[in-house]
Amino acid sequence: MKGQFISIEGLEGVGKTTQAEVLCHWLEEKNIAYIRTREPGGTEIAEKIRHLVLEHHSEPMDATTELLLVFAARRQHVEAKIKPAIESGLWVVSDRFTDATYAYQGGGRQLDKTLIRLLEQQVLNDFQPNLTLWFDCDADIGLARARVRGELDRIETEDIEFFNRCRAAYNERCVSQPERFLTLDAAKTVSEVSQQLIKALELRYG
């Protein structure tokens, strides 16, 4: 039996890491074997690309360069880690996947989404998660939380309008694919969000 692929999406500061731990605990209680990973990254090569994408550079990074790096990392991640895990029966929990590219490079960077769609088709053969959990809240709330964590990476230093566009792009994805997305109100307290998550998982998987 193949495993399931669950991605976790949302802006900075929405609590993805905390809720991923809740999800993994739920899987453990169900005796479901899983692996946890992230994007960009997840493998040795993809993690090196992650550093290129997120660290600060004296040379400005072109938006399309950023997009291509993200897809290069994702191809390696899918082929070397995600697909083999699913084929072996493991569930995969990933912090971000292709929806983040539509949000950040498509919405935030305002790149042509037809290019992103073409890359999704040609590089990934339309490979998608079985379920995407979108933790949604106002961008200013998330950014305020993210700043408390400490030093911000290259993308986290973008202005509020960038993140508002990212959020709008996430919403567009959610509306267009309601069978795959579950939206959770990340503006609530951690425990309230966790309760939403558990309820949603129980309804979907029992």
Mind telling me the CATH class? Answer: Alpha Beta
- Number of β-strand runs: 5
Number of domains: 1
Tell me the span between the first and last alpha carbons.
Answer: 17 Å
- Taking all Cα atoms into account, the compactness measure Rg is 16 Å
**Percentage of residues in helical conformation:** 55-70%
Question: Total number of helical segments?
Answer: 8
Record the strand order, biggest sheet: 2-3-1-4-5
Shape: globular
Overview of the molecule:
The protein has a single domain (5-205), classed as P-loop containing nucleotide triphosphate hydrolases (Rossmann fold). With 206 residues, the protein is α/β, with parallel strands linked by helices. The protein is 57% helix and 13% strand. It has helices at 16-29, 44-54, 63-87, 98-108, 113-124, 139-149, 160-176, 190-205; strands spanning 5-10, 34-38, 91-95, 131-136, 181-185. The two termini are 17 Å apart. The chain has 8 helices and 5 strands; from the N terminus they run βαβααβααβααβα. It is globular, with a radius of gyration of 16 Å.
